[in-house]
Amino acid sequence: MRPEPFFSGAGLDRADALRVDPDAIARLAEGPDARELVWRDGLPAIGEDGALEWGRVTAPELFLGFEGGEPRFTAIPQAVEGSRAAFAIMANLSAEAAPVFAAALSLGGWHSRHGFCATCGALTEIVRGGWSRSCPGCGAEHYPRVDPVVIMLAEHDGSLLLGRQSQYPPGRYSALAGFVETGETIEAAVARELYEEAGIAVSEVRYVASQPWPFPSSLMIGCRARAQSRELRIDMAELEDARWFTRAEVAEALRDPDAGAFHPPPRFAIARTLLEHWLTA
Q: Tell me, which fold does domain 147-280 have in CATH?
C-alpha cells in the first residue's frame, strides 16, 4: 500500500447527529466510559506509548466524538502552542492517535481564539457540542475554519525541485507550499506559488493526497506538477535555497539522511509522504 499522510484517517466517530442534542451529550459526559483529553503546556498530552492521555471528565466543554465506542471530550485550553513546540513531542505521537490529536488541537485552538462574534463583537456561545459558536446578539453562526494550503513537488526529467527556508534545521529541504488565495483553484495556486517562489512555469498539476495540519487549522493539499524548464529564479524573501534532486538522491536521503544529499522532512509532514509517493510512482 502507498504511504498515507500523518494525521490522516478517521480517528473519531464524530457523531454529527448527536451535536444537536445537548442533553444526550451531557448524559454521555456523565457515563462511566467518558474520558476527557489531558492538555500539557498548551498541547494534547502524549504518553510514553505514543497514545494520547485521557482522564476523568471534569469540564466537558467540547464533545470530540467517539473513539472505540467511548465518548471523548475536552476542555478549551487557555493557550495553545504552535508547530515549533509541537515538533518536539510529535516524534513520539503514534499514527493511530494522530488524527484525534489534530482534531482536538485545531478545535480547541479555534475556541480559544474565537470567543467573540466577528459580525457584532458580542460574546458567543458554544453550540453543537463545540463544533460551532452562536452569537446571541445578532444570531450569526460561526464554524471552525479550515485554511487550504497547496504543497507540491515540481518534477523535470526525473528530478524534483525542493527548497529550504532559513528556519529549517541544517540540511533540510522540503516541498514548496503556500496558501490558496480567494477565488483561486488548487491548480492555479500550485502554478502561482512555484512561479513566485522559484520562477518556474508548470503544467499537468495533479492531486496526490491531503493532510489536516493543526497549526492552527490548515488542510495541506499535496500535488505534483511538471516544470517546463530547470532554470530557477528564487525569491530569497521566501526561500533560502532551492535545488533539483535526482531520484537516487531522494531515495538515499530517505534511507539515510546523514549520508544523503539533504535531510528530508519529518515523518509527520505531508512533504515526506509526497517524496515517498514519488519514489513508488
A: Nucleoside Triphosphate Pyrophosphohydrolase (3.90.79)
